[in-house]
UniProtKB/TrEMBL annotation:
Protein name per UniProt: Type-5 uracil-DNA glycosylase
Family: Belongs to the uracil-DNA glycosylase (UDG) superfamily. Type 5 (UDGb) family.
Organism: Thiomonas arsenitoxydans (strain DSM 22701 / CIP 110005 / 3As)
Residues annotated as signal peptide: none
Cross-referenced CDD domains: UDG-F5_TTUDGB_like (cd10031)
Domain Uracil-DNA glycosylase-like: start-end pairs: 44-219
Lineage: Bacteria, Pseudomonadati, Pseudomonadota, Betaproteobacteria, Burkholderiales
Length: 227
């Protein structure tokens, strides 16, 4: 982890020992039994707390963040996200595609740095079938809500998918009906601008729902608003 992430050990934003959601805690224990080399812990945010841009994801993937311990590292979404961020000067390097199933093929201490942006998930633990329950999203919302409050330079939030979109609204005390999710849509929420994107999942990429150019355009849009 980069040096700017040192404060993230605080349970205000992330608790590595959190067991507030019994179903998720039990699932992590089960996955750890099956994959002892995987981290199988709540995944902390990545990037500087003073960044003006926050990228909100859904939750860790089984062989991605849940294995590596870093957001979007190890799954099919990571290469597109970090590749796009690198092209736009927001990350120091892209992440490669995983080779096989072993987490050591992608390390969370590979020196990757984020510049002017931060990544955090709506739900910090791996959910079964990548589908957190509404109660789990509500329980975990305290972490991203505290994070948004602590990001004193925050101006723009990019939500990757509807779950992240709804979690941001919840964190800001907004009703879900106040801003409807749509790709590339902009929503003014008090001091912040929220921009929506389809999630950069491998499924969305393979089906053509989200292309690399569509994804890049969202972040160009975000940088325009930041600047």
């Amino acid at each position: 982890m980069q040096g700017d992430d040192a404060p993230l050990s605080s349970s205000l934003f992330y608790d590595p020992h959190c067991r507030l959601c019994p179903r998720l805690a039990a699932f992590l224990h089960q996955v750890k039994q099956d994959h002892p080399d995987f981290a199988c812990l709540p995944v902390p945010p990545l990037g500087p707390l003073d960044a003006p841009l926050l990228i909100a994801g859904l939750a860790p993937g089984l062989k991605g963040a849940n294995a590596s311990g870093r957001p979007f590292t190890g799954d099919g979404a990571g290469p597109l996200l970090f590749g796009t961020l690198t092209e736009l000067g927001l990350a120091s390097r892209p992440v490669p595609v995983r080779i096989g199933d072993h987490p050591s093929t992608l390390r969370a201490d590979d020196g990757l740095q984020l510049h002017g942006c931060r990544i955090s998930n709506a739900v910090k633990c791996l959910p079964p079938e990548n589908k957190p329950l509404p109660a789990e999203i509500r329980t975990c919302n305290r972490f991203i809500a505290a994070e948004i409050t602590a990001m004193t330079n925050l101006r723009v939030i990019v939500a990757l998918g509807k779950v992240a979109h709804d979690a941001v609204l919840m964190a800001l005390g907004q009703k879900a009906s106040s801003a409807r999710f749509a790709h590339a849509a902009e929503h003014r929420l008090g001091d912040y601008m929220l921009i929506d994107s389809y999630h950069c999942s491998r499924y969305n990429q393979n089906t053509g729902r989200l292309t690399a150019s569509m994804f890049r355009a969202v972040f160009e849009q975000a940088l325009h608003l930041v600047n």
